Amino acid sequence: MFTGIITDVGEVRSVETRGELKRVRINCAYDVATIDMGASIACGGPCLTVVAKGFEDGANWFEVDAAAETLALTNVGRWAPGSRINLERSLRIGDELGGHIVTGHVDGMAEILDVRPFDGMARYEIRAPRAIARFIAQKGSVCLDGTSLTVNTVEDDVFSVLLIPHTLSVTTWGQCKVGDFLNIEIDLMARYAARLVEAKV
Q1: Which percentage of the chain shows pLDDT scores above 70?
Q2: Is 49 a catalytic residue?
Q3: What is the pLDDT of residues 128-141, one digit of tens each?
Q4: Annotated catalytic residue: which of 150, 153, 166, 194?
Q5: Catalytic residue check, 135
Q6: Which among 28, 70, 82, 157 could bridge 133 via Cys, Cβ 3.0 to 4.6 Å?
Q7: Selected catalytic residue, list 28, 43, 47, 128
Q8: Is residue 48 within 8 Å of residue 12, measured between CB atoms?
Q9: 166 in catalytic set
Q10: Kind and range of the H or E element at 47?
Q11: Is 28 a catalytic residue?
């Protein structure tokens, strides 16, 4: 379980194809001595399991395996050495819930249609996959590339979010551009509310 509050921006060091898996090594600022093998880390949104860790060339690193479903539903398959990734370690009991409840189970990819910078901020217009667009509501929460954000406007399958200067500086959002695809996870409460309504039909 996560909050969508980014705590580090990692950098992909290597990507190795192993059959239908991809083993990804990510440099990070986390003290790897505090990361347990098998721990969950949200990497650009998807919850991935730590399968190796270490320290090399002055950098801490951990490795994760991305399976076929993750590669099909997310942008993980597009990662290459040098890619910057939003990171968040799993929530601990007693931690501050500063964003919203995020599972790390990505629903698909959303496309950036427009970026409008102003006053150090930026407004992004994004198209959601048609199948999940109905779960996105104005003033509701959405998780994009692991970041908890508030939805500003919604029109059909297109919605907008506003990024403040702090978020732009401590996440990968400052490098996002038109045409990029973001990992999207819809709000957990919206998902269950819709399921309850469907069950009553």
Answers
A1: 93
A2: yes
A3: 999 999 999 999 99
A4: 150
A5: no
A6: 157
A7: 47
A8: no
A9: no
A10: strand 47-56
A11: no
Structural domains present in the chain: 8-89 (2.40.30.20), 108-200 (2.40.30.20)
Here the contacts of 10-14 (C-beta below 8 Å, separation 24 or greater) are 10/43, 10/84, 10/85, 10/87, 11/82, 11/83, 11/84, 11/85, 12/79, 12/80, 12/81, 12/82, 12/83, 12/84, 12/85, 13/59, 13/61, 13/81, 14/81
Q: Return the percent helix, strand and coil in the chain, to nearest 5.
A: 20, 45, 35
**Span 33-42, average pLDDT:** 96
- Identify whether 105 is a catalytic site residue: yes
Q: What are phi and psi of 4, to 5 degrees?
A: 80, 10
State the catalytic residue, choosing from 40, 70, 83, 171.
Answer: 40
Residue 91 pLDDT: 79
Of the residues 49, 103, 153, 169, only one is catalytic, namely: 49
* pLDDT for the residue numbered 4: 92
Q: Give ∠ CA 164-168-171 in degrees, rounded to 5.
A: 130
Per-residue pLDDT at 199: 66
Catalytic annotation present for 181: no
User: For residue 24, is pLDDT > 60?
Assistant: yes
